[in-house]
Design goal:
Helix content: 55-70%
CATH superfamily: MetI-like
Number of domains: 1
Distance between the termini: 46 Å
Largest sheet: none
Length: 297
């Protein structure tokens, strides 16, 4: 019998997730940001177990040692020590959990709660939705850092209260972003057609609206994470967040200001860690936004 010959070869179309990843990995800046972002996640999860020294132990024989590449540096303290002889590298690794990990937790909580409220409100019409919209206008007129400072001042100075305050300060941003995105998509012709077909509001939201607002949610999440990193560092820098001797990056920066001319590495390294984590987050967010938008087109 003659063998069957396929005149029209089968074309396999990759899933939307695979298409998004293929587009994302072509962006060199986004991939660079992803590697740095992944490094900070590993630091936040495994930081305390990766430290070569106890970040809280003091060594009177190793005060203000410069980094190992300096003339008087030591390989035993790769990034040097502070004014109490504590290893800077160990404190930075441990501090990733307090700064980056706390910011990530606050951002995820704000995203889940805020986006949920915003999407539900965006599907509704009437007085309740209008009141919520105008309340958000008022809250968004207040900078998130100022709102977080006020909340921490009321609740008391601690890292836990700072985390809660920043989560609450980020909520209006997520509610507003998801609210506007749902309202914009809900007026599209295909959504009206699905609604006329008899689909329930939950089904419309889950299957028709949510896939089309993912780029908005991703963009807002990365903005929120960048804001959370800066806000937590700023609150702790002002002395109303994590307290010494906790090696939170903002607290380390505040404790080292008096040593800026004597040991500049104690100021530069925590500041560089804050800056690098924010830049990496923004690079990943921008790459994801472009990949998702290209997939929708």
């Amino acid at each position: 019998m003659p063998s069957k010959v396929r005149v029209y070869p089968e074309i396999r179309i990759p899933s939307p997730l695979i298409q998004t990843w293929q587009t994302f990995r072509k962006n060199s800046r986004a991939m660079t940001g992803l590697w740095i972002f992944s490094f900070f996640i590993v630091m936040a999860v495994l930081g305390p177990s990766l430290t070569s020294y106890d970040p809280f132990s003091q060594n009177a024989d190793a005060l203000l040692l410069p980094p190992s590449w300096e003339t008087n540096g030591s390989l035993h303290y790769f990034l040097g020590t502070d004014d109490l002889g504590r290893d800077v590298l160990s404190r930075l690794l441990y501090g990733a959990q307090l700064t980056f990990g706390s910011a990530l937790t606050a951002c995820v909580l704000a995203m889940l709660v805020g986006s949920g409220i915003g999407m539900i409100a965006g599907m509704q019409h009437g007085l309740t939705s209008s009141i919520l919209y105008h309340m958000l206008d008022v809250l968004l007129s207040i900078p998130s850092l100022l709102l977080a400072i006020v909340l921490v001042s009321v609740m008391g100075a601690s890292l836990e209260n700072a985390l809660l305050a920043i989560t609450l300060a980020l909520l209006p941003q997520f509610i507003r972003a998801s609210f506007n995105a749902v309202r914009e998509v809900a007026n599209k012709e295909y959504i009206i057609a699905v609604r006329l077909d008899g689909s329930t509001p939950w089904r419309i939201l889950r299957l028709a609206i949510l896939p089309n607002i993912l780029d908005v949610l991703v963009t807002q999440t990365t903005r929120g994470l960048s804001t959370a990193i800066l806000d937590i560092s700023a609150v702790c820098f002002l002395g109303i967040g994590a307290q010494s001797p906790l090696p939170e990056w903002g607290t380390m920066l505040a404790d080292s200001l008096d040593l800026a001319y004597i040991s500049p590495w104690n100021v530069a390294l925590p500041g560089f860690a804050i800056m690098l984590s924010v830049v990496a987050t923004n690079l990943v967010g921008e790459g994801l936004r472009k990949a998702l938008q290209q997939g929708q087109e």
